[in-house]
Design brief:
The complex is a heterodimer of chains A (153) and B (130). Chain A is of the alpha+beta class and 153 residues long. Chain A has helices spanning 4-21, 59-70, 79-103, and strands at 25-27, 39-47, 49-57, 109-111, 115-117, 129-136, 139-150. Chain A contains 3 helices and 7 strands; from the N terminus they run αβββααββββ. Chain A is globular and about 45 Å long. The two termini of chain A are 12 Å apart. The longest helix of chain B has 12 residues, at 12-23. Chain B has a single domain, classed as Response regulator (Rossmann fold, 3-Layer(aba) Sandwich). A 5-stranded parallel β-sheet of chain B has the order 2-1-3-4-5. Chain B is α/β, with parallel strands linked by helices and 130 residues long. In chain B, strand 1 (3-8), helix 1 and strand 2 (29-35) form a beta-alpha-beta unit. Classes of the chains: A alpha+beta (153), B alpha/beta (130). At the A-B interface, helix 1, helix 2, helix 3 and strand 4 of A face helix 1 and helix 4 of B.
Chain lengths: 153, 130
């Protein structure tokens, strides 16, 4: 994939993590000895191009996301469901913003609902996948952006 | 004047975040109700009179565009301001939505200032200093 995919992911991730969840982040690498991703969500897009965006994060950061988004503590019987919803909402925002950063504002895309996926199987290896590792408040996160075919971009 | 709000989104966390943001945006807010899709919103509107709707596009059962079309057909609701809240970044899609009758658009992630600006523009709402 072209180099600007990296930039598109970074621009979108910065906007989503910092504006919505008030979390600081910066590009990193997997050598950092901080909590690694242990959960993931994924969604597909189709229209001017088809593909998939996957977000892998550590559950620790989802607690902060829920608390910052909702302004209440992430505890009790609904904590797991809330963390899952928070991850899906982060991914939803990320996907929409990556598509605009990468393809511009002309093409129209339809998005599938975000779904929680098995973290172990969410790491795909293909030349068509751009991956960006991030340090989000001292936990690792990874964004995978896969474009399977491109029609008008 | 306190404004009544209807928030329509299939994501519970987004509805909660939207309500929280609306309540902290500096505009005096009255009652806030929530609906999980367009069909649910039409049911809520049978006994609730909001001043403005904040609505997602992609929802199961009845999406935001269909809801807007239904409101346009109603004598009672055709002038009710609808603001789309979405990750959508396509100008082409936005133009379609504007032709369908939306009055505003807020892109996720959003800030309280953007919500206040939409209410100021569409309702003439006074924004209190925070």
């Amino acid at each position: 994939m072209p180099n600007n995919a990296d930039q598109a992911i970074l621009e979108a991730a910065t906007r989503v993590f910092e504006t919505s969840a008030f979390l600081n982040m910066y590009p990193s690498d997997t050598s950092e000895e901080i909590p690694a991703p242990d959960c993931a969500a994924s969604m597909t897009f189709y229209g001017a191009a088809r593909g998939r965006v996957t977000l892998r994060v550590n559950q620790e950061i989802l607690v902060s996301v829920v608390e910052n988004l909702l302004g209440e503590s992430c505890e009790g019987p609904e904590a797991e469901a809330r963390k899952g919803d928070a991850l899906k909402e982060l991914l939803n925002m990320l996907c929409g913003n990556i598509l605009t950063e990468y393809f511009g504002t002309e093409p129209i895309f339809d998005l599938s609902p975000p779904e929680l996926v098995d973290n172990a199987t969410s790491t795909v290896s293909s030349q068509q996948v751009q991956s960006l590792v991030l340090n989000v408040e001292n936990t690792l996160a990874e964004v995978l952006f896969e474009v399977q075919n491109q029609v008008n971009a | 004047m306190a404004y009544n709000i209807l928030i329509v989104d299939d994501s519970g966390i987004t509805r909660t975040v939207m309500e929280r943001t609306v309540r902290m945006c500096g505009v005096e807010i009255g009652e806030v109700r929530q609906a999980v899709n367009g069909k649910d919103a039409l049911q809520v509107l049978s006994d609730y009179w909001p001043d403005i709707i904040f609505c997602d596009i992609n929802m199961p059962v009845m999406d935001g565009l269909t809801l807007i079309n239904e409101l346009q057909k109603s004598e009672e609701w055709k002038d009710l301001p609808v603001v789309i809240v979405s990750t959508e970044g396509s100008e082409t899609r936005m133009e379609e939505l504007r032709r369908s009758g939306i009055q505003g658009y807020i892109r996720k992630p959003f800030t309280p200032e953007e919500v206040a600006a939409a209410m100021q523009t569409l309702l003439g709402a006074h924004v209190h200093a925070k």
